[in-house]
Amino acid sequence: MKTRARKGIFITFEGTEGAGKSTLIRNVAAQLESSGRLKERRIRLTREPGGSPIAERIRNVILEEPVDPMAELFLYEAARAEHVVRTIRPALDAGDIVLCDRFTDSALAYQAHARGLPWKKVKLLNGIATAGISPELTVLLDIDPAVGLARAQDRNRFEEEGVEFQKRVRQGFLKARSESPSRWMTIRVGSKPPEELSASVTREILKRFGKRFDRG
Ligand code: TMP
Fold this sequence. Notes:
By secondary structure, this protein is an alpha/beta fold. It has helices at residues 21-34, 53-64, 69-93, 104-114, 119-130, 145-151, 162-179, 194-214, and strands at residues 9-15, 43-47, 97-101, 137-142, 184-188. It has a five-stranded parallel sheet, with helices on both faces. The chain is globular, with a radius of gyration of 17 Å.
């Protein structure tokens, strides 16, 4: 008898520079692993731009030096298409829990809202690049852009553009969130220690998807 393939769970993490996404994702992965709730499911950590060999090479090109905004958008979408086909889709088909550092909402926040490319065009290209794959939950790490910039360690050329740019990026994320509020969970980065932030994300994941884990 053919068993129905179990579906993976796709969760993305978004935010302006220096919000602490990488630490949060690592902590959430560790807490999910130690929760004892995952059964046979594996956790897969990945990131954009990047997440597959070619996409990582495109990442280096994009982050190295300024590119025309429209060309930049296409580079991000090219990397995304490759990432979806090589990494995300196979992981979801295998039933994995995919935790992805940035995804399509970053293109809306950075290329559309902050850079000024038309929102609808970016959305259209996102749809083409992802072939319909979209996250079931998006965690927004929301930090005061000035505080985030001061914290950012590996300064890339987006960080060099300063706080006004980061403020526009933040507004872009809020706009994306307003278009599909139930998909989003917002974590305000302030005085709470990182483990507390990640614990609330882990709780939310177990609340939303726990029943699916229980089914194996
Ligand atoms: P990272 O610093 O979080 O690794 O991300 C690299 C940079 O790429 C970051 O400044 C945000 C930017 N970015 C976009 O502008 N558009 C996108 O679609 C993605 C995924 C990232």
